[in-house]
Amino acid sequence: MTSDLMSFSEKSFVVEDEAEGDRLAREALLDCAMGPGRRRKSSEKLRNGRLPSSGLAFVVRNGTGQVIGTVRLWDVAAGGRSLLLLGPLAVDASSEGKGIGSVLMRHAITRAKEQGHGAIILVGDAPYYQRFGFSAGKTGSLMMPGPVERDRLLGVDLKPGYLDGLAGLLVASGRRWLRRNNRDNARELQAA
Ligand SMILES: CC(C)(COP(=O)(O)OP(=O)(O)OC[C@H]1O[C@@H](n2cnc3c(N)ncnc32)[C@H](O)[C@@H]1OP(=O)(O)O)[C@@H](O)C(=O)NCCC(=O)NCCS
């Protein structure tokens, strides 16, 4: 399960696949990092009621096992083509600026590529995400299911030219979250 081990200063951090037991810690981290308004974002309409894409939900733990970073990717589609939506990405405020966000991003991109996905899009600050290859250059004809600042809708090709000419409304295409049976969801996540 563990895939990357990093050392910053004298502490160790590890990137792992997210486990079912991480849900509360992840949600608390997101509430702190992004505030209650996070649930009103247009991206949330593509995530709500869905499970993350198989094998593409990650956490960073500190030396005591506490979740201090999170990122997930989601299956979406536009113009008949499948792609991934990344987010939210968050790092605990006490651990910011140590490269944890970058490690999470690079890990997520590598794993998505290994799985054969064609491209990733996200809504975020270009000055941060451009270091991972994201730009608004190929997302101008994509529409979110809600308001979005165009210069914050960013994309990166995982396969050459995958985003070329991509146009249309982004829709959720991921596996549905089964509200009645969390055990099934847990099994599905573990199998992913
Ligand atoms: C954005 C975030 C994930 C970065 O995590 P991190 O672990 O601190 O990132 P890293 O250590 O890898 O990178 C830090 C660098 O990114 C820069 N950076 C951080 N946020 C930035 C932003 N919004 N725009 C531009 N640069 C940014 C820092 O200034 C720093 O620059 P430096 O390397 O030149 O010193 C983290 O600050 C966070 O969780 N923020 C709140 C939630 C959020 O805004 N998430 C992103 C939107 S989904």
TrEMBL record:
Lineage top rank: taxon: Bacteria
Residue span(s) of domain N-acetyltransferase: 56-135
Short name of any one Pfam family annotated for the protein: Acetyltransf_7
Lineage of origin: Bacteria, Pseudomonadati, Pseudomonadota, Alphaproteobacteria, Hyphomicrobiales
InterPro entries documented for this protein: Acyl_CoA_acyltransferase (IPR016181), GNAT_dom (IPR000182)
Protein name: GNAT family N-acetyltransferase
